[in-house]
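Q: My labmate handed me this sequence with no annotations at all. I'd like to see what the chain might look like in three dimensions before we decide whether it's worth expressing. Could you predict it?
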Amino acid sequence: MIFLQPAWFLLALPLAASFIIWRLPSRLITVLRIAALIPLLVAMASPIVLIPRQAGTVIAVVDRSRSLPQDHDHVEREIIDLVQKSMGTNDRLGVVAFGERAAIERPPDSGRFSGFLQEVGGEASNMADGIDRALSLIPRGAPGRILLVSDCRWTGRDPSGEAFRAAARGVPIDVRTLERPGADDQAIEAFDAPVVVTPGEAFLLTAWIRVPVGRDVSYTLSRGSTVISRGHHEFPPGVSRLPFRDMADPKLESGVFDYRLEIDIPAGDPRPENNVARALTAVRGPRPLLVVSESPGNRFAEALRGAGLRVRLAKPSEMTWSLEELAACSAVLLENVPAEAIGMSGMNTLAAWVRELGGGLMITGGKNSYALGGYFRSPLEGILPVSMELRSEHRKLALAIVVVMDRSGSMAIDAGNGRRKMDLANLAAAEVLNMLGPLDEFGVVAVDSAPHIVAPLAPVENKSRVRSDILRIQSEGGGIFIEVALTAALAELAKAKAGTRHLILFADAQDSEEPGRYKEIVDAAHKANMTISVVGMGLPGDRDSDLLRDIAKRGAGRIFFSEKVDDLPRLFVQDTFVVARNTFIDAKTVVERSSGLFELTGLSGSTGAGSGFAEGAFPAVGGYNLCYLRPGATQGLVSRDEYKAPLLAWWNAGIGRTLCYTGEIDGIYSGDFATWPGAPSFLSAAARWAGGRDESVDPGSLITQEIIRGSLVVKLHLDPERWKDPFSDPPVVTILRAMPGCSPNTETRTMSWTAPDELAADIPLRGEETALATVGMPGKQVVRLAPAVLPYSPEYRPTTTGDGIRARESLMKASGGIERLDLGGIWKDLPRTPFPVRAAPAFLALALLMFLLEVAERRTGLLSFAFARLSFFRSVYSWVHSQFASSGPSFSGSPHSASIASSNSSSSTNSSHSSQNLSPPLSPSQTSASASSSSESVASGKEPGQASGVAPADQKGLLDALKKARRRIDHGK
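A: Here is what I predict for the chain of 973 residues:
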């Protein structure tokens, strides 16, 4: 037994002294008091008893990557169930899943495993993080094992380091192998392309093709959407080289070539995914400005080219807004482009590219831009130097809006991140409510096969209550009935007192049913000065899109389609903006120059409509988007109307630059600006500011990047002749990574020294994502690198002889684990270790029992009574036993018995001579002998004392002993 706090035993000294000073009523109470205090002292000293037992914690680390067989989910569940069935009472089983990242599926517990719930991504096998997470779940000093269920094909960080950490803690790693067959795998083992080339440079692309048996293989090589090579080749068994030649166009100053190589897939190929590979090559030269516009002639692009700037012109429909496209330009110039033409993922990518990688962005005005174009509450709004909020002083008349919400069965579909479509539609309606003021009226009608008034049309007073009602709308099944929806909503809108009455109909473009007399209803609403806009959940070509489009046209409203539920709040707000305020001032407006204009453009001079077009004068515009200058931004032009709104503003967003010109460049609202001779100089100066950067590194330094085993390795090579380092703190690599069509993620890595003249950062790549990195040094401009991409997910790389086996053997050898074939036996392999058990509760229980016995003795005396009765029966038993022993011949003829009897007889005779004296206390043997003699006298009819060999004193001693015992019983003492 171990005592954690033995100092409490010092209390035994004062307690012993208290027993001497203050005596208790009886010895029995004293004994009970001591019996209560001793276990109490022991309990206070925190006793620990070490009990050897075979129990501990097992953590199953389960591979969830795509390199496993297709039925791996079922097999992994079965493995965990088999381990779980063999658990003991004190055993604990935990589960960690790993793929691109590691996640705890279940902490160590004795309950049943309910299945894999965490999304860890299947494009990588981050085994090191999985083992590290498992080690954190095993208590230090406690027995435990790790069961690794994997094909042992890892990506990212080498798991050997975690195996040695496990060994240091005494935690073996057992391995249960689970892998795809790889014997007949035909694959593109590698696809190499130069990272960077110069305009006009010829270069080679090399593919390494692996075939299990000799065969003729067909191939196709594409650059973007153009096929540049196609054919077939006879390959021998093994790995063979397949080269290609290409050349960068001498006229192309900058760009990114996206190569894609495909080979035919034979029947029975276990990994068909590795028959397609991808590579990127950047053409390094001065990056052009990317002008995105729907204007056919595009006066903007012509003006920039006339100023000597490099320009690439593209329509919104030609853009994918990928990192590869953005990497090829210095700045993006959006000329009156609506937000929906870019999309949410495109705007997220563009905003991150500007903020994190130092890109440039310029937005010009028009009726498809800013708030009217849907940029309010969009990802781009946060990086712009102007805001587009709805200010009450710039409102039109009071507004009444009724929102019709589709709550049909399709709205219960999961939208990701634990949200359903209905949840995001509710948020969109709540955003409309947030934009309205106390003079406005608002109502919500939820519709499936019948209308349900969620919020009756009423003045906007208690926003929190109405918002709460909106957010509780649930999908109830069925489809949305258009006729009843319009009838109920317009009936609510007819109660409005506001002059402007508007209805927003949100419906599923694939599930809008029962239109009925919608034409008659919408036409009547239009005659009553009510407008109707439609937000369709889906695509413009969906089944019911024509119906929704016709409703918006007849209702003199707008039509929006989106298949991405994340777009809904922005679309609802965009439509509300148009109805609620003058977001575009379509009147000729005089422009006033601000002090910042000369700093940006070098233009100076007077302004005004009558000053002519002398150098430096700025003309009046025919209209502009009403916005507000953000704190910290600089403005160069201001409207001279009642709004005093910025027409030109700029600032730094992150490490990038953004500039806003809220006037229209090329259109009916450009006004006098369209014929102003200084327009090209003005536009080129603004565009040059947005895209101008110096990305040079120090002389003697060089930055390189290459892909090694699924990771992008960025290196900074320093001049060996340098006399000091060109930075005070280590450089930082910022990585923007995105899967095709998805929003990007941003990461940062600090470079570390790998050699006296070299620093490096290792960035694991995943699947089909594109990574775009920059290197930043304190006090210097960041340097943007070429985009990088893996040929395909590392999970699909070809299996080679011994692939995975070496990693498995290394993990087991380093940690002391085994290949786990007997899953249930993992618990038997846990060591028998002393298990500490707290003994304090047992001693406290004993102390409490003794205390209760003491109380019972004080109150009732039952213990004393019980002990007295026990003493009485013991005295009787002793006397009877002695009598039987003294009548030797009657019971035994042995000489030994006779001698005992003779001895007893002599003793009795001698004692009779002193019968008149006080007899000394009888011993138990004497008492027993007297009782026996008395019994014999009674049996023979003689008086007591006349029996042969029994002294009268013996009889008297027995009676005295019985009397004393009886008195003890009576008095309870």
